[in-house]
Write a structure and sequence with these properties.
- The protein has helices at 2-23, 29-51, 62-88, 91-98, 101-112, 119-136.
- The protein is 80% helix and 0% strand.
- It is mostly helical.
Length: 137
């Protein structure tokens, strides 16, 4: 099931980029980010309420709150940068650079989460980096 959901995520992320590029023309990038964020916020809380997950709010630890808030701040920073980059540049160049987040995530997972890098994963990171350079240059 995780594979189906991951592929769904990739399709929606691709649509996000294309739809954002089409919709951001003539719109302040920060305003566009705020509109998008508002829609995401409504969708997320609708899912919480539809699934009855709001009862778990009180059980969230301080540590989890801290990291969820920091993750939210990182998401906001990412979206603000991404929308401005999309406004200024071509989607075919901005999106591959944005996807370098895969390489950065893996490096952080090895360092902070102590996940074990395998030769296959390292090779994949190198290929993603090389592919990004090939697409952007």
């Amino acid at each position: 099931m995780w594979l189906v959901l991951a592929l769904g995520s990739a399709v929606f992320a691709a649509l996000t980029s294309i739809l954002a590029k089409m919709g951001i023309e003539g719109v302040n990038s920060h305003l566009a980010t705020a509109i998008r964020t508002g829609v995401v916020l409504v969708m997320a809380w609708a899912m919480v309420l539809l699934t009855g997950a709001q009862g778990g709010l009180a059980a969230i630890s301080r540590r989890s709150w801290l990291f969820l808030v920091l993750s939210g701040l990182a998401t906001g920073g990412s979206w603000l940068c991404y929308y401005r980059a999309l406004q200024l540049g071509q989607a075919s160049k901005v999106v591959p650079i944005d996807k370098l987040s895969v390489v950065i995530t893996l490096m952080l997972a090895f360092w902070l989460l102590h996940e074990t890098p395998t030769p296959r994963v390292i090779a994949g990171c190198v290929l993603i980096g090389a592919g990004t350079l090939l697409m952007v240059l």
